[in-house]
């Protein structure tokens, strides 16, 4: 018998919490829930969930602090539930160690998709530490990390070193949003100027090379004010 995937929901708004508990339970998840940050943190250590859904606006402690406290001891996937439209909140949560976010109001499909992506990504990290990293593949695009090759319809695409770093970072995290500052730090290092301009210039060049219509990208999407998200690897679907 396989173990059910367990989800911990930390959300003070009862109607939203009830909706998520009901939806996830009916989709074969094992669900536990908490209405405060403190209760949530305690349940994380006792229940060891596979994934956490975390509201940022909690009555006792700020959701951002819940993320920071969790990251002191665990890398378990955290998906932030945000009612706030401010991109800044989401960026802060992602940079504090959240894996992804979902904005209220959201539907069943979006909720399930976000959870699947977070869990798959976490499993992939664990597997890749044992196996070599498998190539990324989606639509006509392949990124071969071993050979450092990007192929579109079987043809090699010539990318600069910087462009390749950006694409491979996004491909290794496919399906997940990566913030501008995380990308800049990964590509140019921790002391790089936190300025998006050079990243945007590189992204425009990448899109010209890999997208049929750079204005309507199929592979690398912009999350306005937050970062980029690459189409999910088909091997993971
Ligand atoms: Ca709330």
How does this structure look, described?
With 237 residues, the protein is an alpha/beta fold. The protein folds into two domains: 122 residues, 3-Layer(aba) Sandwich (Rossmann fold), CATH 3.40.50.2300; 101 residues, Arc Repressor Mutant, subunit A (Orthogonal Bundle). The protein contains eight helices and twelve strands. It is globular. The mean pLDDT is 90. The structure holds calcium ion (CA). The site of calcium ion has 5 residues, from loops.
Number of domains: 2
Q: Provide the CATH topology of the largest domain.
A: Rossmann fold
Bound molecules: calcium ion
Order of SSEs, N→C? EHEHEHEHEHEEEEHEHHEE
Q: Overall mean pLDDT score?
A: 90
Instruction: Identify low-pLDDT runs.
Output: none
Q: How many beta-strand segments?
A: 12
